[in-house]
Amino acid sequence: MKVEVDPMICEANGVCTGLAPEVFELDDDDELRVLLPEPPLALADRVRHAVRSCPKAALTLSE
Amino acid sequence: MGVKYSPFDYAIHDDPFPAYARLLDEAPLYHNEEDDFWALSRHADVTAALADHARYSSSHGPLLDRPPWGPDASAALSFVAMDPPRHTELRTPVSRGFTARRVAAMEPRVREIARHHLAEALERGTFDFIEGFAARVPLDVVSELVGVPESDRDEVRRLAARSLHREDGTQEVTAEGPAAGAALLEYYSGLIARRRAEPADDMISVLTASLPDEQIVPILFVLLAAGSETTTNLLGHAWYWAWRHPDQRKIAFGGDVPGWIEESLRYDPPAVGVARLLTEDTELHGTRVSAGSRMWLIIAAANRDPRVFPDPDRYDLSRDTTDLVSFSGGRHYCMGASLGRMEARIALEELVAAVADYEIDPSGLRRSHMGNVRGFTTLPTTVTPR
C-alpha cells in the first residue's frame, strides 16, 4: 500500500492527521507530510478511511 | 401526477423535504424546463458530480439566480466560479488563512466575540436570535480573519448586514442594499490600499502580496457572503430544530454540542445546493443530458438520502453524520468548513452555558427566499437564563 498527497490540492484541513496521525502530519508551515508513505498493514483500514475522508480528494492510494 | 419541484417556489421554502423525498425515490434525475435545470438528489450522484469538476464545471458559478449564473460569474464570485487551474491559483493563497492550525488559533477571539454579542442579547431576554446574535458573530469573525481593525467592525457589520439583508418574502436585497454594498466596496478598497502601504498579519496583506486590487475585492465579498450568511443560518437551524425536538434539545444542552452542529448541518444545510454546467453529453438514470445543460446538485436532498442516512427525516444528534454533503466536495469543498464548525461550536457552547432553556415564537418566524441558501431572517426567541 502506497499513499501520496497532491500538495497543490491539499489545504491542510487536518482530517487525515486526525484519522491516522501515525501516517500524516501537518508541519509548522501547515504543509502535509506523509510520515509513512508505505504504511504497515495494521494501519491500512485507517489510512483508507483517511484517504476517503479527505474533503479535497488530495490523497491517492495505490494498493 | 409526477413530482414538481422548483427551488424558487415559496411553498418549497416553507418545507422542501417532502419534495426531496419524492425526487430521491421517483425522479433521481429531474428536469425543470421552466427554471432550466436538471436536478440530481441522490447522495451517490451528488457526491460523484461534485468530485468531477471537469464534467460538472463551475465556470458559470454555483448560484441559480441570473445574474450571477453565466459565463461572467467569476467577475463577482472569483474562484468560486472558476475551474482548475485558474481556480487553484486564486484559491490557494486564500485557503492558507483557513488551515486547521489557523482556525484553532482564532478560537479565543471568536469566543470573545460570541460572549460580547450574547451578553447584549441576554440583557434583553427576548430578542431576535438572527439579528441579535446569529448574524453578528459570523460578520465579526470574517472581519477578524480578513483584517478589519476592531474600531471599524461595527460599521462593517452594519453595512454588510444591510447589503445582505433581504426583505421578507422576496429574493431581493432591500432598497438600501446597493448603497450599503457600494460603501463597503469603498471601505475595502481603502483598507487594501493601507495594507499595500503597510502590511499587517492578516489575510488582506497576504492577498496584496500576490494579487491586483480588482481580484482582491471580489474575494473579500465572497468571504463575507459565504462566511457570514451560512454560519448565521446554521445557528438559526440548530436553535430552531432543537426547539422543535425537546428530547434532542436536552441532549444538546447536556453537552453534545458537536452532535447538535453536525446533525443540524445534515438535517437542514444552509447551502441547499450548487449549480454546475455540464461540459459533455452524459447518460444519467437512463436519460441523455446534453452538454451545456445546467445541473442542480441538491445537497439538502443528498443529506436525506435513506440509502446513506437511515430514517433520514428523524433529527437525531447521535447519528453517524460522516457522509454529510453540507460543505460541498471536491475542488470547491468549503474552505471555511473548520472555521464555520468552530464558530458554531463556540456560539452554541456559550448559549448552553448562559441559558437554561428557551422558547421560540413561531408566529414571528420569517425565511429568506433564495434558491441556493436557506435560513431564517427572523427568529424571535425568549431565553431563561441559568
From TrEMBL, chain A:
Domain of life of the native organism: Bacteria
UniProt-listed Pfam families: Fer4_15
InterPro entries to which the protein is assigned, alphabetical: Fe-S_cluster_ET
GO molecular function: 3 iron, 4 sulfur cluster binding; metal ion binding
Keywords: 3Fe-4S, Electron transport, Iron, Iron-sulfur, Metal-binding, Transport
Cofactor(s) listed: [3Fe-4S] cluster
Name of the molecule in the record: Ferredoxin
TrEMBL record, chain B:
Signal peptide extent: none
An individual GO BP term: cholesterol catabolic process
Alphabetic keyword roster: Heme, Iron, Metal-binding, Monooxygenase, Oxidoreductase
InterPro entries assigned: Cyt_P450 (IPR001128), Cyt_P450_B (IPR002397), Cyt_P450_CS (IPR017972), Cyt_P450_sf (IPR036396)
Domain of life: Bacteria
SUPFAM superfamilies, A to Z: Cytochrome P450
GO molecular function terms noted in the UniProt entry: cholest-4-en-3-one 26-monooxygenase activity; heme binding; iron ion binding; steroid hydroxylase activity
Protein family according to the UniProt entry: Belongs to the cytochrome P450 family.
Protein's name in the database: Cytochrome P450
Organism lineage: Bacteria, Bacillati, Actinomycetota, Actinomycetes, Streptosporangiales
